[in-house]
Fold these 3 entries.
Entry 1:
Amino acid sequence: MNSIISHKSSNLSGEMIVPGDKSISHRSLIIGSAVTGKIIVNNLLESEDVLATANALRKMGVSINKLSNNKWEVFGSGIGSLSGINNILDMGNSGTGARLLMGLVAGSDVEATFIGDQSLSKRPMKRIISPLIETGATIENFNNDTLPIKIKGSKITLPIEYESTVASAQVKSSILLAGLSSIGTTSIIEPSLSRDHTERMLKYFGAKIETIKLKNSKWKIILEGIPSLKPLDINVPSDPSSASFPIVSALITPNSKVKVMNVCVNELRTGLFKTLIEMGAKIKFMNSREMNGELIADIVAETSKLNGITIPKSRAASMIDEYPILAIAAVKAEGDTIMEGVEELRYKETDRIKSVCEGLQKVGVQTIDTHNSMIVKGIGPQGQINQNVEINSNLDHRIAMSFLCLGLISEKPIKVDNTDTIKSSFPFFLDKMKKIGAKFEQL
Ligand code: S3P
């Protein structure tokens, strides 16, 4: 396993194109396999997570080919067309790949066992398994809520109405994908809206799907089963979660100004940028435009004086992957940054509340960790970090990248171990960050 050392830096500058969005990349392969005909996917994120999804689909009979860098073709054979028995699908580090594919498997006459790495094998799966059983899927080997899990799907699923207690795009998408094979309508109720890339992509391909706000301020997503999905090409916008690393680096590093191009600014993904602006960040959105049903823009960020604020639970779903890097921005803020209602962070690639708090405490920053909230006590613009520390990423790409960004403002270098998983979402992170001036050193 590799380690990276991050050294104090200043004057970050230049333009960066971060890789394609991870959520949309997974969906373009998974939903692409259910259209009837060939689609081209441009700017696919070629990360380990997405490649695991491509390999799993191939094992179940889908023809998927790389044409050139980041340009792929997917031959969709229609809804319910996955095939095979005894498929062993290694989903690596990817919760999205595993959970979404389980939904598609539930709606095909196919049998598959899902396995994953040490981190994925600890993540909760009951949230997916319970609704999929309601759609008619048969589940075997289901112990302790975790992988490995064997699923036997059926070509026609039962239409269900399911109320999820968590706002999770993975749960919602898994049910919707199973619902593609239903005669009738499938609906899911969420406590607040999670990212809606599945809904947008299904609509783009021609499905009838609508989202309504209920009187109790929950949300209901309704899909008509067996839609005819047209083969249309997809351009994957750049990933806002990956963009958050150069953006926060520019905000906290002296004399910096960085522009990140073509970023997906779907409002269910931009909670971090909204929060940073409320904290005083100089962030500008330029050249907003639409691309296959998704809004994109170029984002400029420059060195800013930040103030701690309270981030309400209602914003959590729109920035769920960005709390580790927000915590790094919060270190440089004046006052406390209070992140409310973030319990879901405990079920990500690692317990992110624990990892962030432990890491920050190691560098001398005070944090408070309750069951469902996290507080970072900012050191302010004049404060200094000067401990020589080594951080273990706990096989979590976002923890690794976040602490490398913290190293940019630390008097002594910060070493981050187990950085290989960065490849699961942000290939060439090191090179791209070095190009704008970050002093990162691969060991
Ligand atoms: C994802 C949804 C999020 C996010 C994950 C990607 C997706 O999880 O954390 O990285 O692509 O659907 P939940 O919405 O399930 O919390």
Note: Residues 4-20+237-442 form a domain with the UDP-n-acetylglucosamine1-carboxyvinyl-transferase; Chain fold (CATH 3.65.10.10).
Entry 2:
Amino acid sequence: MKKRIVFAVLAGLLLAAGCSGNKSAENTVGVIMPTRSEERWLKDGSAIKDGLEKLGYTVNLQYSDDDIPTQARQIDDMISKGVKCLVIASIDGSALSNQLANAAAAKIPVISYDRLLMQSPNVDYYVSFDNYKVGGQMGEILIQGLKLDQATAANPVIVELFAGSPDDNNSVGFYQGAMDRLKTYFDRGVLKVPSGQIERTVIGTLRWDAAEAQKRMENLLSAYYSGNVVLNGILSPYDPISLACLEAAKAVGYGSTPGKPLPVVGGQDCIVASCKSILAGEQYATVLKDTRTLGAATVSLVDTLMKGGTPTGLDTSSYNNGAKIVPSLLLDSVIVTRENLMTAVVDTGYHTAAALGL
Ligand code: BGC
């Protein structure tokens, strides 16, 4: 009797181990985010993980410390562990072709998350915001904040321009969207860039590094703004860059000297520090890309693929990654200023009032 019980328990344990082993291999989704050091990717990572776990999937979530070889290794490791689907937010969109080829050989579908994976045919889907529209909103922020429709060529508005990381395809959409929106003001001579630094390749910020942007802003201020020229606005593609530029401006008297108000600066990502700055009347605005919505869209796409289904309603013309048009799901973003911050950010639960110190 005793022997039989021991045998039954052992058999049960072995079965359970076997089952869970198989189940986790069959059910695992690999999710790779570029870095832990930016607020948004932490939110993205947990939105996807929580959503997939609620549906019963096992999630292997890794962050790559903004290091390309680390990211490549993590993907290879996930492939060799037998994940059934990969969700990748790249660091350098063009640096993962070998890994993507390995995934394709192992028949693992790849979803390019937020940032487009470039120059590879082995990218199955792209889930992101409409990056060109996001750029348009960055331009719109300057149009509103600087009242460009009332400006004249006799008294032009003075700005400097910043772009995102050159190896991130999103930077192209953000820049192009913003510049197309601002073009008419440049053409009419009501908007001027004293440094003459306008091309995306010249104004880019490798790895979206706010310290690098701050240094560039400091250099611009000392090289082009030493006389009576006052900087009125800054095109910024990313909240930490906006805050860093504001610091550089404050350091030379903006915001505390008559005739030198803080420049109008937009941003992107709606991070807590920028929301606080907007409420304090410093950063003018940001663009909210709700990571919960992007996460949910991704979870639903993964679920469809894991069940062998075919996703529908995708955009099949907008995103060419250099090797193919990648079917895309593109979400909408929202401009957030002091006027709508409570309704767009707090009431929707994106940040709590307490997190914003309210
Ligand atoms: C994302 C932005 C983010 C930036 C820096 C871009 O690819 O779309 O939301 O601000 O990377 O992480």
Note: The chain has two domains: 11-129+290-331, 131-288.
Entry 3:
Amino acid sequence: MFTAMNFTGDSLRLIDQRRLPHEEIWIEGQDLETVAQAIENMTVRGAPAIATAALYALVLDAKNASFRTWADYRARFFQGCQRLQATRPTAVNLFNALNAVRQAADTWSSELPKAELLPLITAAAQALEKSDLETCRAIGEHGASLASSAGSMRVLTHCNTGSLATAGYGTALGVIRSLYTQGKLEHVYVDETRPYLQGSRLTAFELQSEGIPYSIQTDSAAAYLMRYERVDMVVVGADRIAANGDTANKVGTYSLAIVAQYHGVPFYVAAPRSTFDPLIPDGRSIPIEMRPPQEITEHGGHPIAPRQAQAKNPSFDVTPASLISGLITEYGIIRAPFGEGIQELLRKGCQRS
Ligand code: MRU
């Protein structure tokens, strides 16, 4: 299984996801700014992965800075958090992880020396990475319980939610992995995921390397497949889930959910508790990242539209809760109406302030 990152102690090594699947190039992030830029430019992407990368960026910053005590470093630490949370606006995992470490920081003694501070920040980053991996495996197990006893599943997914987008295993792709391991998977339909092609470049890469049967289709072919082939379930990931279950995920997810409902295909969202945002009542207030128009008008640096063409590139959209059959979390599957189930989920861990 591929991993998105590897912390060496002196640097954060990130596989450059922009170059996959044909080139496996690792970049060496030795300071906070390099990692922040790697999040912005999609070297590392996927909601849980960017949260973990951000915490390792804080470790690098504390390591690189010259200071004697926490009191000397505190201001720079909080500036670093600000820089990291300005990288990408939609995935709440990043904000939840930074807020948790900021809350811990409020309890640190001013006299704490650098030699004792560094292990604290490192432990926070390592704990997030470890718990993300365990969480994904639990999501996978719960999701696999959805398999019908009648036979193997044909599952459609969007974007990349696998080991490249998390600390390992994946969320929606974790469900697919678990189905496969349990012998309950027949085929994965992979949306190519315009414009950034996370599906055809990254999800296909992960499935290919593990011998999981798949085929790629254009995003707009989902209706065709549901009409003329057998699609038993759609499972996607999430970047932020509001208190009522409205879900922000990669652009195209909303139209996929509409198409699934029309064809009576169950539509599931697989996401950890850290993707839920209790402060946002519904999807209307989820910030949607607008990415550069060139991601649409160019491909591999070559223009694929008139040079003067304007393009709008919302990177995410919001699927209303009413289109979602269930939310697969590490604690189990939440069914509609989601409000109460989400509140219960949020009580199972510490809440974002
Ligand atoms: O822009 P990206 O590639 O970071 O978007 C990723 C997604 O939308 C994923 O579906 C989501 O982050 C869940 S990853 C487990």
Note: The chain has a mean pLDDT of 96.
